[in-house]
Amino acid sequence: MSAVTINDVAREAGVSKKTVSRVINNEANVSVETRDKVMAVIQATGFKRNPLGMALAKNRSLFIALLADNPSPGYLQKLQKGVLQYCSESNMGLFLYDCSYRSPGLVAEIEGFIDNTLADGLILVPPLSDKKELLDMLNRRKVAYVRIGAPDAALGDSVGFDNQQAAYELTRYLLRLKHKDIGFVLGHPDQGSSQRCEAGFRQAYAEAGLEFPEKLLVQGYYTFQSGVDAAAVLLNKKPRPTAILASNDEMAVGVLYSAHSRGLKVPDDISVVGIDDIALSTKVWPNLTTMRQPITAIGYRAAYKLIRKLQGLPDEGPTSPDADLLTCELIVRDSAREPGRN
Amino acid sequence: MSAVTINDVAREAGVSKKTVSRVINNEANVSVETRDKVMAVIQATGFKRNPLGMALAKNRSLFIALLADNPSPGYLQKLQKGVLQYCSESNMGLFLYDCSYRSPGLVAEIEGFIDNTLADGLILVPPLSDKKELLDMLNRRKVAYVRIGAPDAALGDSVGFDNQQAAYELTRYLLRLKHKDIGFVLGHPDQGSSQRCEAGFRQAYAEAGLEFPEKLLVQGYYTFQSGVDAAAVLLNKKPRPTAILASNDEMAVGVLYSAHSRGLKVPDDISVVGIDDIALSTKVWPNLTTMRQPITAIGYRAAYKLIRKLQGLPDEGPTSPDADLLTCELIVRDSAREPGRN
DNA sequence: TGACACGTTGACACCGGTGTCAATATGCTT
DNA sequence: AAGCATATTGACACCGGTGTCAACGTGTCA
After folding, report:
1. Which of A118, A225, A265 is the best substitution to test chain B (most B C-beta atoms within 10 A)?
2. What's the rounded mean pLDDT across residues A185-200?
3. Global pTM exceeds 0.85
4. Is the CB of A29 within 7 Å of strand D?
């Protein structure tokens, strides 16, 4: 809506529009007085360049999109925050696109979305980051993308954290507290992170020289409701596990809910822990002990990688091979302690 | 990145680009055979029109933005969902912009955002919808906007629900349950909704012929933490209130947390109710009794109004004067019951 | 048969910027 | 003074579409 264009400025300043273009782009080889004159007119008229015209001329992109169908709203919210942050810093717009993972026309739908918006960079959130057909389509159309939390390097750039490590350390923590019968709630079978978590559980048991409690491994889907359901199964086992480890906090909160609703006290009767550390984790009672995943930082870094790539600039971030595998941290709160008085 | 342009199609089909333009825009006065020929080429080449070129030529907008600094993430998430939904339906992009309500440079910052993105329509979420300087700037620059939840018609379009009605009915519900000492947690003093809620509380007491418990009215700020703090004050009163009504669910969850952490049972020892019905409300234990606000529908309608306005089309929604004041609904769950065994 | 309306089409300018290249002015070398 | 490199500037085409208007062919009516 800014009515004043580069032509107006040029006319007003008595120079060509190209010269104005030079000034606003800080190009070399403009005489000081010309620059000053143009700047004065720009100030006076309040000229702002039109991003559309610029993008069209430079054949450059203006936007990236965040594609998601994630079962944990709290996760998405934190991720979005980080992405948004780098977008602001680099003057990029962020498009949001909600899609349905199960929808049969998903790939075509996303293809349509790309055509309509000209977002030529995508950030893919699990479970989309594991979806082969989608990646194939994007590669074929040469659409740049960065995946979240799917460290399968062969499939393209990815930013995430080490799920296995997180699950491993969390399991070790519970074992150290002297829990032996630990119930595990897996994530969605389609997401690689779920398998990596499972590997982490098993690794910790193996290292401790204990037999892994196969019977206490329950399928979940990373949603609150699946946490409730999985807990219902686990809490009916005899003997009841003394702790439950869920593969994300969203499910852990479901476990908490399930325990409460059958009159169990947490952590007195049962310990509950999760992974992620989302906002929800400190709003429930008791606060959840969890492995903190630097979700916002992951979002930020993903946006960084994508935008740098789109701009043809090198990735100047940390150069270690693990730069895109951020570290997690055990956050001890109130939902877990030694088993005892039950 | 779609390499094939309207020129390619025109050359291939042996017509002018204008004719191609006519075909893709379904304009009248194109002979059937020309249309077929062009369509065939479009199919064969996979041509998609470039939104940037189109937007530039038509001087039309491509995006709207959702500006928010809302203390309740769950609220925002639901709202965003509704907005996004209408955006998809109408092929508009949605920009997200997080801002800080308190920031002194807020207005200038938003002005910069508008210039940079060319989003010429804005959806304003409380507390931004009440911010006079911001509205002034937008009016001056002739930027279209729709406000959420701030039904002060003089300031422009708004979509929301009747806070006073919600608070009134909720209070009546508690009074009907025979609560007399009800603690009230107000919202943010800068947001009009907070005052409207208060009016609703008072109205219910007045109609019941009861004296309003001024001492049990505590300031909150719509955040979880402010709910925790307000509950701490209320729960130390002697006699302790038998119920607490928070002006939104985010705070009600804080109240719940506060009650639990001092060993109180909900609803046996104290009833807790809120307003909104966000996702969080059914993830805490016990589930929150609340007034459901159709947040997603509000977001959808706000996007509808804004986009129709931008397109110069009339608002064809419901025509009643209250069309933009959606109704709320009492959702009875498990966090409130008659006062009794304490 | 001529006048006229109408359907169909393309040439051209335009939206608001950027890239290329040539034209001009200036300073320096020899 | 001629020859050359360099700094500064503008004309023009271009990005990918749309709007305006004139040109053309055809059918209808007087």
Report:
1. A118
2. 93
3. yes
4. yes
